[in-house]
Prior knowledge:
Helix 2 (about 55-75) runs antiparallel to helix 5. The protein has a two-stranded antiparallel sheet with strand order 1-2. The longest helix has 28 residues, at about 130-155. The protein has helices at about 5-20, 55-75, 80, 85-105, 130-155, 160-185, 210-220, 235-240, 245, 270-280, and strands spanning about 115-120, 225-230. By secondary structure, the chain is an all-alpha fold. The N and C termini lie far apart (about 65 Å). The protein has one domain.
Amino acid sequence: MSEEDMTRQRQGMQTYLTARVSRAKLLATLGAGTIAAAGLPSLASAQSSTETVQDIINIADTAEHLAITLLTAAVNNASTLGISGLVLDVVQAALVEEVYHAEFLESAGAKTLTDTFTVPDPKILTDFTTFFNTVQTLETAFVGAYLAAVGEFTSLNQPTLAKYAFEIGAVEAEHRTLARAALALASSSNTADVPPNNVAFESRPFNTVGDAAKALQTAGFIGGSGTQVTYPGTSAALTAAGAMASAVMNQTVTNATPTRAYPAPSHHHGRRHAGRSHHHSGPRHGRH
């Protein structure tokens, strides 16, 4: 790709995002660390979506290409990053999962807004802690983006797409937890990432998928001043993923639908805690 083409892509991305997303909605806390809970907008302030299905899947595909680009570079630079063994397997599996996400989105007609990205901090691809902190940050953003997509698809009367967005977002949440686990296991003095699975309910930091794209741009991953990196393509990404490319299951969306309803047990209605005390005895009471 020529410099002129890359400039045109970046300008197109910037023009699109500026028109689509209000600066008042930006997550200023998206950076090299985690997204601070204090920076999350209230759900009560959520506004109705003006994004189309095509807008949503295009932005999601762009985010997947960003993830593929960074994870491919990380795998190829694993020795410098100090990634090996099971941790390397985890990164390779995450990489191929992002590839399968992108393939599904593109099969639905998605087109990326850019395939040229920027690395805001060179240590992301040379330092173990910086890399996994960045993965944690990006995956938190991706989870939030797919949660926003679920809401938008629901508003657009697209329940099947809402289900698919949830299926992808759930895997992004696994990636976030595994990044925290890698950080926790790397240093016994690291208490910030213990436990790795530290949320009972995921956060929704964005009202729309476009908000997430704008946050990535603000953080310097799109159109930033850092080192430019280009999407490596599916073939190169799968080669980097190695054996994990075939080890990962559910390589496309699942279409299972329930065959019967499963009503909640009667004791869940207004007597939840009382019901638990009635059904459990002995050693379990000793834990309280």
